[in-house]
Amino acid sequence: MMRAVSFRLNGKPVRVTVDDERMLLWVLRYDLGLTGTKYGCGASLCGACTVIVNNEAVRSCSTPIKDIARKQVLTIEGLGRPDRLHPLQQAFLKLHAFQCGYCTPGMIMSAYALLLKNPRPTRAEILDHMEDNLCRCGSHKRIIEAIQAAAQTAKRGAR
Amino acid sequence: MTGEGHLSRRGFLTSLAGSGLFVLFRLEPLLAQEPARLPSRLNYPTDFNAYIRIGKDGRTTCFVGKVELGQGAMTSLAQLVAEELDVPFDSVDMVMGDTDLCPWDMGTFGSLTIRQFGPVLRRAAAEARAVLLHLAAERLQLPVEQLAAKAAAVSAARDPGKRVTYAQLVQGKRIERHLERVPVKPVSAFTVVGKPAPRKDALAKVTGKAKYAGDMGMPDTLHARIVRPPAHEATLKNVDTSGAEEIAGATIVRDGDLIAVLHSRPDVAEQALTLVKAEFDHPAPTVDEKTIFDHLLKAAPQGQVVGESGNLEEGEKLAATLFDLTYLNSYVSHATLETHSAVAKIENGKATVWVSTQAPFMVKTQVSQALGMVPQNVRIITPYVGGGFGGKTLARQAVEAARLAKIAGKPVQVVWDRAEEFFYDTFRPAAIVKIRSGLTTAGKICLWDYKVYCAGDREAKQFYDVAHQRTISAGGWQGGNPEGLHPFAIGPWRAPSVNTNTFARESHIDVMAAKAGADPLRFRLNNLADQRMVRVLKAAADRFGWTPRRAPSGRGVGVACAIYLGTYVAMFAELEVDKISGRVQVKRVVCAQDMGLIVNPDGARQQMEGCITMGLGYALTEEVRFKGGEVLDRNFDTYEIPRFSWLPSIETILIENDDAPASGCGEPPIVCMGAVIANAIYDAVGARLLQLPMTPARIKAALK
Question: Which of residues 42 through 101 in chain A touch B, CB cutoff 8 A?
Fold first, then answer.
């Protein structure tokens, strides 16, 4: 059913009039033009489409826009700017915690949700939280190190 | 240049605006690689392959037909340019994989970028530097011998006040130079190459700004969903699109075998596609993932001898113990996170297609043929590619997008869904290796009779020191197979042929070592004459802390080694096997690699880590299931690729060997993963796995 849905996206109010069953991923990419969030599997199996909704990591490929009404959405585009990167982005950049980069926005957003809840996760907690985010290039080792580094930075209060 | 020619050299250069220094590269060095499988060059200019432009803004732009798949070519190629040209690394911009801006390139595969293209690029940059020194000599009225180039400027060696920048030298000039024999720098003079460099793609990739082909749509782009057959050999019987036509805004396109629904939103196109009623005829399946091996043995093409020395009968006479084993591996998917994607726009008789591909110039030919357009009116642009591993060589999706855009009169985007990606993937072929070998009482390998079916002959030849040996290869991933050999498409998969050949060879070496009661490392060293391999093995063993024991020792440790197109790899692993569930947890992997001159040590380590992690998949879980041409795996729920919890501790060792030419690093370590895990499983529990992947079910069966 076509209807107007309002929510906050990266800190700003937005209102879209779309089929309310349309998945958030398509609304972000094709109604709002934010292509940082990626399609990988369409079935919540790979995590490439992960965004933050009300401080929780959500698979946008399987989240209808009607469920987003009046909520807060954060995507990779809203996390930091090139001149003011989020500690996770800084750590991924510095440690080269990516290769092809396609899973990277989803990895960073999943990690962001983890650090919100658990600012000093153990290695085991990181593995457990990131388990369903897939990376084919095999950057896992560096992704774990980057999340640990970002947690350290946050602990020191640096930015 | 004749006939339907692509860009002439003059046309090519004038297509780039502005002044500057241009250096042309010769193409020949690239043609030496595997000439049999080179595509037709279709009258591309033969006198250069890529070039460098120094702009009046002082920045250097390097145009190459290679693409950035994640392997870091954008960074390592920029390092080579910065080094030889004496410009800051940060001032080098890379333009990659755009067929209107970059000269012809075969494609980005086979670990060729640094090994084959790197030397060409270095020489071109050295030539550019030589030209700039000559220009500076005229400007400063000093002989070249008294000048030094540094940081994009030339100054008098004795009077640094006399200085002119590259930008000043090229300002207002348009200088075309052919590549001549200018010496490149000695390794001892390197300041950029051989050191880690920040990846050029990092900022774009951590901020979500990196664009992939599926991100290139314009506001009026239509999304296509295409009617697909249920199996590869299926033929369309009839189709009823009336239901889809009811959907507001949907356009149905039928062009021969291509039936698609177009809509401005992908979800509506998908919904309309579900309303298309298509019936297919398809023959009863004759093979599946279990029966395929018998079929391949019967149907494989005639074998070719690819290596032979001594006399097999003689070898057999010398043998105290004979071995005869068969090794199997299943079809494996590339499963890149980015599915095949393309956006095509046709305007004023010119087609522009943004494509996720490893071979933009091959795709240009594909698209121009499909559209019936002359090649110079087709432009392929390759943005960032979300992983390739050999799976994005051809680009069916680009042809689909181009055909649909032509009919629709609007830009069309084709992004395969995950099921299409599995269906049209060009899998690593299922393969069989039969090895008959013999061992003397002294523990020397005296006989090696090796036959590989369907994997291909790359690195099939024995590198151990065996007097009486023969290697036969029957069919491979390169094509030339009889019709119907495989029930779907197959093709190159990261280190093609060599994952299969190394699994078989290195497993079999361990089988012989165990029978001889020898430590697997000592057994290898005892049978190796190649000192480069000995050195790599010893370096990895030292780091691992290997202590000699005959297997099975119960420790769960294993070794494997390989040569891949000039790169030497040795790998040690430690793992645990849960005998109840059959599950394997790899705890630690140590990998040493001698790849000759190293351009970017951090990039090399990153590739090694990637190979080790990705290789866990084909070793332990990855196996395409099918009924004839129907691919049963359609998503990551049944096709399991490596996850965070699988990750072992990984240690990488780069062997210094600057005197040897740079060889590839994006493929070699992955080839050891099958055997190193098989050997460690044997060491842990005494069960010898002869088939990949080593799933819990196969491990439990082997334990019985």
Answer: 42-43, 45-46, 48, 75-77, 79-82, 85, 89, 92-93, 96, 98-101
